[in-house]
Structures are given as structure tokens and as C-alpha cells.
Amino acid sequence: MTTLESFVAGSWTAGTGRSFVLENPATGARLAEGKALASAAPAFAWAREKGIPNVRALGYRERAERLGALAKRMFEHREALLDVAVENGGNTRKDAKFDVDGAAAVLAAYAKIGAELPEGNVRPDTEAVPLLKTGKLRAQQVFVPRCGVAVQVNAFNFPAWGMVGKFAVAFLAGMPTIAKPATSTCLLAHRIARLFLDSGLLPEGALQLHLGPAGDLLDHVTGQDVIAFTGSADTGRVVRTHAQVLETGARVNLEADSLNAAILAADVEPGTELYDVVLRDLVTETTQKAGQKCTAFRRILVPAGLVETLQADLCERLSEVAERTGDPARDDVRMGPLTSAAQKTAALQGLARLERAAARVFGDPGRATFVGVPEGAGHFVEPILLRAEPAAVEDPAAPFHHTEVFGPVATILPYDGTVASAARIVALGGGCLQSTLYTNDRAVAAEGIERLGPYLGRLVVDDEKHAGGSIPPGGVLPLVHHGGPGRAGDGSELGGRTGLALYQQRLSVQAGASLLAKTIPPG
Ligand code: NAP
Known about the structure:
Elements: E1 2-3, E2 6-8, E3 11-13, E4 19-23, E5 30-35, H1 41-76, H2 78-89, H3 93-115, E6 123-124, E7 129-130, E8 137-145, E9 150-153, H4 159-173, E10 177-180, H5 186-198, E11 207-209, E12 226-230, H6 233-240, H7 243-248, E13 251-255, E14 260-264, H8 273-287, E15 297-303, H9 307-323, H10 341-354, E16 358-362, E17 384-388, E18 409-415, H11 419-427, E19 432-438, H12 442-452, E20 456-462, E21 481-482, E22 493-494, E23 504-512, H13 513-519
Parallel strand pairs: 1-5, 9-10, 9-12, 10-11, 12-13, 14-15, 14-19, 15-18, 17-18, 19-20
Antiparallel strand pairs: 2-3, 4-5, 6-8, 7-8, 8-23, 16-17, 21-22
The structure holds NADP nicotinamide-adenine-dinucleotide phosphate (NAP).
NADP nicotinamide-adenine-dinucleotide phosphate is lined by residues 153-158, 180, 182-183, 213-214, 217-218, 230-232, 235, 238-239, 255-258, 294, 404, 406, 433.
């Protein structure tokens, strides 16, 4: 069994604290073990001493080139990385590509963005605006890298995309990273970090890897540091209210959980290409990565008159996946297990809560036999579909507005098909990363943007015209803003160039027009 080490202060370092073991969630085979670090203090000291000056010394363009080279390196080692994602993450090969290729895509996208930034570390945010009638005195907003450490805490479900995506943005922005992957699936993050660190492309201190529990990680932050956290709303609250974080005013960005909605408008009709896209998306979002996606649909709003048809069609499609749920290493398997025993227990507990206000119309949470594994082995849950009691749909206390079952589980909510009702229902979830409106009616789409918008980080609108070219909405693209209000954490990541702002200080420079023109580069 492999022994995992963290990368701290320039070397691979074994922890001395509590042991952790990584397993294959389909078979239970033990894959690797490690020990918690005694303290994160040496990593912070190294990042401040070496990482900050070394990363800044490169400037945007050089950093961008290195990101591009890292993307190539990931591509060269793609097959081996996919194997690790299958083994430790319970991913099918298709799921694994979603994570690994998604990570490389962020690197490549930020390499391209960086190539268009100015030399050095200062970049303009706005044009210079005159402050007085003479026009000589002006103010201009600029961004500069924060003089601290990017502490990046990631969730278990995207060990590649989570770590690489955050690192790419912080590095281009000009900050060194301490990456802390979720423990249960950290084998892939470890492999990628090793690949990056062995590449010789990163200056000393630019990337450190903290494996195992967080321990005292947040005790060392200062006001220049940035904590980029992805995980559950509960852990997010712990991070946000951590004494040292409150004391120092360290910047915190939370990407938390989300009760995303698929909204079928009144004009969606069976037998159309748009209806096929609805079914494709519902199946993909419920079963991809066994439903362990922050952007997956949890609530499916269906006009009352369409519920029976949609439910029957969706059950049929889900049964095809259920039949092929099992060991993700097999080519004939479409859905793998949840990533740990704890995740399965939490998912089944959440499902029991949902069933207080919704009837199960597909799936058996007690199923014990799956493709290619001995009976009872692995942390499997087959796809499950629920249908809400009509009276509960607009009940603010209904569990499907509060409980994120992080597994292949979704609930149909019958509604009257109007945008006004959809917005009220979506709002009960407290803020979502994404929701998707299916309609051919431009007026409905326009109303949706305005009414649904306040509760979402991203609204996907799919119509017949673009059905052929649409992509399932759970994918987070590097040029698109990611993060939703309220319960979803109110964070903001990616979004192309705007994503750099998380790791930078916005500064207004108030000075003479000619000084601004000579000192602030265009860009
Ligand atoms: P989690 O249990 O909240 O853990 C997230 C991360 O926080 C892990 O790395 C965990 O480390 C770490 N952590 C735990 N306690 C901590 C503490 N006191 N201080 C600092 N870090 C601490 O979440 P998860 O189970 O890994 O992930 C599933 C959740 O993440 C779901 O709710 C999902 O919706 C959400 N998610 C959100 C997004 C998004 O972009 N919004 C993306 C993916 C997932 P250990 O693993 O060592 O405990």
C-alpha cells in the first residue's frame, strides 16, 4: 500500500498525526495511507518566505506560459490520472474524464487569459476617470496580487478539477498556494501535485500540498491571505466563523452546496428535441459521478399536466443506468458507487428526510447487488427518483428545499408552469449554483432571467433552436462564473479574467492623468 506524503517547505513530508486510509469505494480495497501533519505552520512560513516573491517574480505572462505547460503535462499523463480517479473516486472512465480533462481545461484557459495580460503584476480594472473638470486629476482602479497565501480547501468529489482549477487562478493572479484536498479521494490530487512539482515548471513555494485533516490550517491565516473553500454548507460555516479568520479579516470565498433546479416551462412538449434534452440532462445530472456534483439537479419543476409523462420517461431512462450500476472499472458500467461509507450513510439519511414529503417513484435504497462486485460490497446507491406531495411543493419547511442528498437522487416538484411560481419555489432552496430553464418562449426566458436571477449563480436557458448544441448544465466552464448566493456560499470563482480578482486587491489609484498613463499598463 502506498504511503502518502504532504509537500511542505520544499520537500515531501510524512505526517506524524492521526492515520488515514484511502480505499477503492467499489471493492473496499485499501489503496494508500498517510498521517495528518502536526501543523501547517511550516507551510505558511515557506509560502511567505519563498512562494510570494518567487511567484511575483514571474509576472502574468510567464506564469501563463507555465500554466500552459502544466496543461500539456496533465495531458501526457492523462491515462494514468484517469486510472487513479476510477480507483479512488469510484468514477467511471467518463466521470473521471469530466474531472481530469476539466482540470486541464482550466489550466489551458487561464494560460490563454494570462497571455493577454500585461507584463508584471499590475493590471487595470477600469479606465482612468477624471475627478475634476480640468481632467488632469484622475482615478483608476487596478488589481495587484495580494501579498499572502492562497489556502485552498477542496471537496472530495472533484479532486482534480477542484485543486487544479483553484491553483491555476491563484498562480496566474500572483499568489502561492497551499492546497488541501478532501481526504477520502486525495490520491488523485496527490498524483497531480507530484506531476506539477516534479515538472520543474513551478518556482519554489508556489504550490504546497497539505494532506489529511485540516488540523490547525486556518490558525495561521493573516489579512492578506485568501481562503478558497469548497465543501458542504456546514463546514463552510465553520470556516467563515473561525476565530483567526474573523480576527484577521482574511478573505474567504465559499463554494458550498446547492439545491439546483431543472425548470420545465409550460411550453415544453414531449416528442420534441427540447424534451429529449430535458431527459438527457436529468439523467446526466442525477447519475454522473453518482450524483456527487454540487451543480447536479436536486429539484425538477414540472408543469402538473406533464408530470405523469415525464416521470414515466425518466424512470425508463434511469432504469437503464440502474441496470448498469456497479464496478466503475468495467466498460459496461454507467454509474459507480458513492465515494465512501460515510457518504452513503449521509445520502441514505438525507433520502429518508426527503421521503417525509415525497414518494419514491424509482429506485431501491436497500439494493445490495451491483454489476461486477460481490453482494453487499462497495458504497453503492442506485438512481432514485422522488415525487413531492403537491401540498408540500411551496412549503418553506419541505425537506427537498433544505436537504442536499449528495448522491443519485432527485425530486419531481409539480407546479403550475409559470415563472412566478418557479421563482418562488427555487428561492425556497436558499440560493443555487445553477438552475436550468427549458423553454422556447423568449418572454418566459426574459422573465426567468429577472425573477430567477437573484437566487442563482448561473442560469442555463435551453430551447429547441439550440437543443442540438447544448451541453448538460452541471459542467462548470472556466470562462463562466461559478458560485451562487446564500446557501451556495455566495462565492465567486472562475469566470475567466474576473476570477483573478479573488486573489488580488482592487486598488483605486488617484493621481495625475500623465502619471496614471505612464505607470498603469493597458490590458
Ligand atoms: P466537507 O465535508 O464540507 O469537506 C470539504 C473540505 O473541508 C474537505 O477538504 C475537508 O477535509 C475540509 N474540512 C473539514 N473540516 C474542516 C475545518 N474545520 N477546517 C478546514 N477545512 C475543513 O465537504 P465534502 O463532503 O468533501 O464535499 C461535499 C460537499 O461539497 C457537498 O455539499 C457539495 O455540494 C459541496 N461542493 C460544492 C462545490 C461548489 O463548487 N460549490 C463543489 C464541489 C462540492 P477532510 O476531507 O479532511 O475532512
